[in-house]
Amino acid sequence: MDLKGVKLTWLGHATFRMETPGGKTVLVDPWVMGNPLCPEKEKNIKKVDVLLCTHGHFDHIGDAVEIAKQHNPTVVGIFELCTWMEKKGAKKTSGMNKGGTQTVGDITVTMVHADHSCGILDGDQIIYGGEACGFVIEFQNGLKIYHAGDTAVFGDMQIIRELYAPDIALLPIGDHYVMSPREAAYACKLLKPKAVVPMHFGTFPVLSGTPAELKQLVKDVEVVEMKPGQTL
Length: 232
Ligand code: NI
Ligand code: MN
Hints:
Blueprint lengths: L6 E4 L5 E4 L5 E4 L21 E3 L5 H4 L2 H8 L2 E3 L2 H9 L13 E4 L2 E7 L5 E4 L2 E4 L4 E7 L4 E4 L9 H8 L3 E5 L8 H11 L3 E5 L11 H7 L4 E2 L9
Helix pairs in contact: 5-6
Bound molecules: nickel (II) ion (NI) and manganese (II) ion (MN).
The site of manganese (II) ion has 7 residues, from helix 1.
């Protein structure tokens, strides 16, 4: 897998850090403190310029408000989620919606569809959080990474390939709340990335899909199994 100078770190579950060749730090789906897979040394977040949130479930935005207050990144998510984050104290948000693209830091971000729910657990209430989404992130060196968020497989992943042609796909494989390896393998057929990094598995017992199963099912796509805390 050629990252062309982008540093990609998996913090476990759906949380990834991407360090751009230009020196910006992008954090996707920040869930570190309560994340059973996140290594201790990674729980002390040092720098975030851009915070991308795919949807409002706790295992994706668990630490988003805290990190936004501490590091003042530009928070990118769907409009309703960003509005909620602002109410909770995030200073700099740039809410968007599916189909749109914007430049933040030194990356461009396109918000794409995801097939999933999106309620925000706020105290004892579930608040409407807009819709769940995925992101195609393009770096200045041309590398494109698709973070699918939480999703089922859907036919329009083919549109994502035709319009954006991501080099690398970060796909959930854990089953139960998201795709299992079977659906993720089908997603690879639609997306045709050069490499796929499995995520959203093994955190809880119900997230039982494994990278080994995905490897057995896909052809022509490199399955890159990362360990929590590992940087590529
Ligand atoms: Ni979710
Ligand atoms: Mn999730």
